[in-house]
Each structure stands twice: as structure tokens, then as C-alpha cells.
């Protein structure tokens, strides 16, 4: 199968006809369809297919037990109304790169695997990179058991309903010890490559980032009969906090976003009793991120007090800065800088987006390739990469895999 035909096959899966965006949430029907697709691709190529104890899918060429494997891949799930590329581009490109290597008749000297990590976006249970975090021991079994979706379904229940055994979840050091290098190809989520005029780049670092839940509790009351002075309206302190987040981020040269909110009782004619908002904040370094989040929380407390509202702030997840391993990064630059790319230096860029590669980087040598995104838009149906650039990404990934696994 060509890149084009694989892409076309996956394109309708989990796509909302209303928004044109993807709703491929962990352990749902759309996720199952993506997983079936992955399995079919593995089997069509005669690769050894396996699902690990955390529900991540693997397709092996060569003997996994040999160790020092070169692994590539990404994820197939999406954010709510996400784009087609974030995740799937890496998985589809991995199969296409393997096909290209076979067409080149290379001789593999190391095992190679393609992986689809489960629940990278955290759209359903609120925590990103659940599959890789569990495997790397960065999420405990107890914490995973407490993850609950908007309908009150826990992660183990969701896994079970999808036909997976939740009793096996947990750290998987044996499996990760098979990996000598992990390379994740991903659509760029910014415009650095567009501005530099390059199709493909190499990742340097991932900004530290986290998610904080702000619960503003006030008093439900009648929207028509309650005098303004008598209200304890949590929506007001929430709204002011959104503006504070923007201000703090701007001052610090960071980013801060309230992109998800839940309101109780959520009635047009009722003052809310609870406004729960999730802050996502990221910065180039830890100190800056701390300054932003501390500033937002301080402002939120002042606003809450002014409105007679109670506030709880809980950090739901945090990923420290990731500096990708220099030796592997330099190896990628060397591989991509020769032959067809002769004379060209491959741009090396940082990103504010989180990735499974970032989670694994604490355990195995890890690197990332980015493919140009002309508008930089991501986590939206407008996310895009031109087919020529995707094909250049496949060639770059094939070159990298050949350089690493066929020495
Ligand atoms: C995942 O894409 C994230 O950066 O939140
Ligand atoms: Mn994403
Ligand atoms: Mn992604």
C-alpha cells in the first residue's frame, strides 16, 4: 500500500460530518477502528503483531527479544475535533517507510518495530500520553484507576468494554528495554519549517507543560430574581481568571489556555454553583512556567474572594522539559544531511506540544522528525501538510531507519 492509499483508508475513521474534525477518543468505537486498521497493516506486511499490557500496539520486523531495536510510530487518537495529521501522520509514515526500505532491499541488522501508543491526547480521561506514561512508570496503576471520563466511566472499565484486560496495566520495563532508539515523526505544530522553507526538521526539545483544574464554587440561584449584589457567581471569577492567564502568559513569553470548561447546573436561567476550568500552560523553561501558573492562581484566589466564591486548584498532570538525546539527534542530522539532502542542514526546532517521544525520552534514546505544516494550525480540522511534504517525511524516516537499523 502506498502512503496515499493508507492515508485515504484511515481518513474517514472517526471523522465528524458536522465539524469535519476527528473524534478518535481512547477506547471508543472510532479508536477500535483505528486499532483494527493498525493490526491489518501489520499483518498485511507479515510483521509480528502484539498488544502490550497497557494497550499499546506493536508491529515487529525481526526478533523483539534481540533488543537494541529501532522503533518508530506515534498515535492514532485525537483531541476533540482534531485534525487528520497529529498522530496518524507518524503511524502511516512508519508503515510507508518500512515499505520503502523493503523496496530498497536493505539488510536489517537490528529489529525494527512500529508502535501506536494508546490515548496520547488524553481527550477522554484528561491525562495525555496514558499508554506511554504507564509503560514508562510515569503513571502509577492507582492513578490510572482513578482516571474517569465525563460519563463517570473509569479507564479500566473503558478498557474492559473495548475488550482489553485492565488488570495487566502497569510499568513495562522489559518491553522498553528492547528499544535501542525511538524516532517519532510528527506534523509540525507551528510554522518554523514553513518560514525556513524546509520540508522536514528535527526536534531539539519539548517545553515543560501541565494541566491544572480550577474549581470555582459559588451558589446556584435564580437568574431572574437574584439581585446582583446577592450573588456568589463563580462564572465571574472564572472569566477574570481566563483574562489573568492571558496576561501572565504574555508577560512571561509563555502560553496559557483555558480550553475546557464544565458548568453546574449548566442552565441558561441559573447562576452556576460550580465552574470548573482546565488551564493548560507551557513555557520554554520550568521557572517561567512556575511564574505563570503561580500568577494565575494568585489572581484567581483574589477574584474568588471578591465574589464570595471558593476555589480549589489541582495540578492534574505535569511533564518536565524534555531535551532530546544529543547523540541520536546529531545522528539524525548527519543521516539527513547527506545524499539527497547534500549540502543542506536540517533545521532543529523546539516545540510546545507534548509527545509520547517526550515521555519515553527518560527511559530510551529518543528523537523526533517534524513535517512542514504550512499554516501551523493543529488540534483543529484545519491541520494540514501537503502530500509532497508527507512523502518527503516518509523518505526522511526511511533514511533514518536505514541509517540506524541497517548498519
Ligand atoms: C498534545 O498534543 C499536547 O501537546 O497536548
Ligand atoms: Mn496533539
Ligand atoms: Mn501528536
UniProtKB/TrEMBL annotation:
Coiled coil: none
Needed co-factor(s): Zn(2+)
Alphabetic keyword roster: Hydrolase, Metal-binding, Zinc
Residues binding allantoate, per UniProt: 211, 269, 282
InterPro entries assigned: Amidase_Cbmase, Bact_exopeptidase_dim_dom, Peptidase_M20
Signal peptide residue numbers: none
Residues noted as binding Zn(2+) 1 in the record, renumbered to the chain: 75, 86, 186
Amino acids binding Zn(2+) 2: 86, 121, 379
Binding note for cofactor: Binds 2 Zn(2+) ions per subunit.
Keyword Metal-binding: yes
Gene Ontology molecular function, alphabetical: hydrolase activity, acting on carbon-nitrogen (but not peptide) bonds, in linear amidines; metal ion binding
Keyword NADP recorded: no
Family membership: Belongs to the peptidase M20 family.
Protein name according to UniProt: Zn-dependent hydrolase
Source organism of the structure: Streptomyces albiflavescens
Organism lineage: Bacteria, Bacillati, Actinomycetota, Actinomycetes, Kitasatosporales
Amino acid at each position: 500500500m502506498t502512503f496515499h492509499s493508507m492515508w485515504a483508508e484511515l481518513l474517514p475513521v472517526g471523522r465528524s460530518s458536522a465539524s469535519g474534525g476527528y473524534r478518535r477518543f481512547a477506547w471508543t468505537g472510532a479508536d477500535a477502528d483505528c486499532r483494527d486498521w493498525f493490526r491489518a497493516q501489520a499483518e498485511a506486511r507479515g510483521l509480528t503483531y502484539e498488544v502490550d499490557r497497557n494497550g499499546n500496539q506493536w508491529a515487529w520486523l525481526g526478533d523483539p527479544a534481540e533488543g537494541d531495536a529501532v522503533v518508530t510510530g506515534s498515535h492514532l487518537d485525537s483531541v476533540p475535533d482534531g485534525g487528520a495529521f497529529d498522530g496518524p501522520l507518524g503511524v502511516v509514515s512508519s508503515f510507508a517507510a518500512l515499505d520503502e526500505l523493503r523496496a530498497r532491499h536493505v539488510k536489517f541488522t537490528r529489529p525494527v518495530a512500529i508502535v501506536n501508543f494508546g490515548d496520547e491526547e488524553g481527550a477522554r480521561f484528561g491525562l495525555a500520553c496514558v499508554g506511554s506514561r504507564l509503560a514508562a512508570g510515569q503513571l502509577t496503576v492507582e492513578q490510572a484507576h482513578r482516571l474517569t471520563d465525563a460519563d463517570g466511566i473509569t479507564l479500566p472499565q473503558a478498557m474492559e468494554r473495548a475488550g482489553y484486560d485492565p488488570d495487566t496495566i502497569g510499568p513495562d520495563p522489559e518491553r522498553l528495554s528492547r528499544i535501542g532508539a525511538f524516532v517519532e515523526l510528527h506534523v509540525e505544530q507551528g510554522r518554523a519549517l514553513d518560514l525556513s522553507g524546509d520540508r522536514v526538521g528535527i526536534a531539539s526539545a519539548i517545553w515543560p507543560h501541565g494541566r491544572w483544574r480550577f474549581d470555582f464554587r459559588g451558589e446556584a440561584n435564580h437568574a431572574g430574581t437574584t439581585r446582583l449584589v446577592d450573588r456568589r457567581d463563580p462564572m465571574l471569577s472564572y472569566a477574570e481568571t481566563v483574562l489573568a492567564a492571558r496576561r501572565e502568559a504574555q508577560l512571561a513569553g509563555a502560553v496559557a489556555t483555558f480550553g475546557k470548561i464544565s458548568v453546574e447546573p449548566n442552565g441558561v436561567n441559573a447562576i452556576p454553583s460550580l465552574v470548573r476550568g482546565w488551564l493548560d500552560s507551557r513555557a520554554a523553561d520550568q521557572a517561567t512556567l512556575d511564574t505563570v501558573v503561580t500568577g494565575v492562581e494568585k489572581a484567581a484566589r483574589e477574584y474568588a474572594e471578591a465574589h464570595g466564591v471558593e476555589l480549589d486548584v489541582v495540578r492534574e498532570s505535569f511533564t518536565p522539559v524534555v531535551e532530546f538525546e544529543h547523540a541520536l539527534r546529531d545522528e539524525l542530522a548527519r543521516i539527513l544531511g547527506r545524499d539527497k539532502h547534500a549540502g543542506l542542514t536540517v533545521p532543529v526546532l523546539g516545540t510546545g506540544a507534548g509527545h509520547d517521544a517526550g515521555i519515553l525520552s527518560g527511559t530510551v534514546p529518543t528523537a523526533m522528525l517534524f513535517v512542514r505544516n504550512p499554516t501551523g494550525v493543529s488540534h483543529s480540522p484545519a491541520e494540514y501538510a501537503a502530500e509532497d511534504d508527507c512523502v518527503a517525511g516518509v523518505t526522511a524516516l526511511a533514511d533514518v531507519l536505514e541509517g540506524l537499523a541497517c548498519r
